[in-house]
Each structure stands twice: as C-alpha cells, then as structure tokens.
Amino acid sequence: MRLIIMPDTHSAMRLAAGEIASLISSVSSPVLGLATGRTMEGVYSDLVRLHEKQGLDFSRTTTFNLDEYVGLSPENRNSYHYYMNDLLFLHVNIEKGATHLPDGSAADLAGECAAYEDAIKRAGGIDLQLLGIGDTGHIGFNEPPSPFDSRTRCVTLNARTREQNAGMFGNDPSKVPDRALTMGVGTILEARGLLLLALGSAKAAIVAKALEGEISPEVSASAIRLHNNCTVILDKASAALLSEETRKKADFGSH
C-alpha cells in the first residue's frame, strides 16, 4: 500500500485528480471506477479544469460507478446518476454510452446487479477504482459485515450511513433511501488499481481503523490492504490518528 499524506484538503483532492488524469492520458482505452459524495466533488472539479485548461481527453474513457440508491430514477436530483452528470460527465468529452451506474429504479434488482458485473467484464475490467470511506468503514455501500468475495448486489443501508448522507435529502435521514445497489468488495478488489481518498478530521478514526486495525468484513475498507496496487491519499486531518509507525512509511506531499 502506498500512503500519501498531503498538507490540506485542496492539495489531497488535486493529487487524486492528477492520479486519475495520469491514467487517462497513459492508457489507450482507460476504464475508471468512480465514487460519489462530498469528498469527490473537488476531484471532479479539478478533472473538469484539466479538461478545459489542459485538454485532458475523456473520449476513449469508460466509467463504472460504485453504487446507486434503490428507488431513485436517474433524473432524480438526489441520485448518483444526477450527481455524476452534474459534476463531471456533462462538462467533459466522454461518450454518454461509456458511462455506467447501477439502475436503482430497475424492476429486477438482482438482474440489474448481474448485468452490471457482466458489463464490467465486457469492458475488460477496471483499471483504477476511486474510493471514499464511509463512517461505518464501508467502500461503496458495503456495510458491515461485507464478505470480501461479495459481488454487485442490493444492500440495506446502516442508520449511520443514512445520517451521513442526509445532507442531500434536506438533512432528514428518514428521506435517505434505505437500500442501495453497490459493487461488492470482491468486485472492487478485482480492479487493477485502487485509489482511496479520505479528508477531514471526521474521517480520522475510521481511517486509522481501516489502515491499522484487523482486516475484517466488519470494516470493508480494510480489504484494500489485501490489494497489491493500492494508493491511499489523506490530508493531515484525516491522518491525525495514525500511529507513528504507519506515518513513517508514508510519503508527505506538498502543495
């Protein structure tokens, strides 16, 4: 695992965007796994900047998002389809047909999950999977416990996760859907590279648990330590509770 600790939130987000841009520029037909949430907003803003100012070309890129709420149509403003269009897809030269998210409004959710797995395989697998980490230690919506061989499936969201995501729903956790479709931990681990980004002091405890605690289905983010090509980017605040031993192994970036 490659651990990079940046001075602040802005520099951490910019570094993550740079890692993604480097892949897009160096692979002939890149396949990206994407994530959502407040942590990623600055990453996508910077990718749009790189497209507009430096000509970063998305025309050969294919994307697969980690998850989507059950019951929300792609047009719903709280859906992750809407989020991705609003923050990235409509601002770069990516083909609409090359962007993929699970359909949370599908009549057959199990069938949708199986089709999503097949689509990833047909694309040749994911080159780089972007990840955040939730308060329950989840990657994607893999709430505890999530077996490390789990595949794309429908899950029930933890109450803490619904509280964490309530900001997009008028700060009312009861309005957050109680189910979601998510790539499984096993699906995520099959990506050729992983890039986890965590920001802010509120993430410090769960980051320390994921990176230094037991590797366990109770903290699905701990599974990234089993991957042979994983980069973790933190800011100083999210890294604050890491042990001195772990910090000695980290790279410390600059602005």
TrEMBL record:
<dbReference type="GO" id="GO:0004342">
    <property type="term" value="F:glucosamine-6-phosphate deaminase activity"/>
</dbReference>
<dbReference type="Pfam" id="PF01182">
    <property type="entry name" value="Glucosamine_iso"/>
</dbReference>
<dbReference type="InterPro" id="IPR037171">
    <property type="entry name" value="NagB/RpiA_transferase-like"/>
</dbReference>
<dbReference type="InterPro" id="IPR006148">
    <property type="entry name" value="Glc/Gal-6P_isomerase"/>
</dbReference>
<feature type="domain" description="Glucosamine/galactosamine-6-phosphate isomerase">
    <location>
        <begin position="12"/>
        <end position="229"/>
    </location>
</feature>
<protein>
    <recommendedName>
        <fullName>Glucosamine-6-phosphate deaminase</fullName>
        <ecNumber>3.5.99.6</ecNumber>
    </recommendedName>
</protein>
<dbReference type="InterPro" id="IPR004547">
    <property type="entry name" value="Glucosamine6P_isomerase"/>
</dbReference>
<keyword id="KW-0378">Hydrolase</keyword>
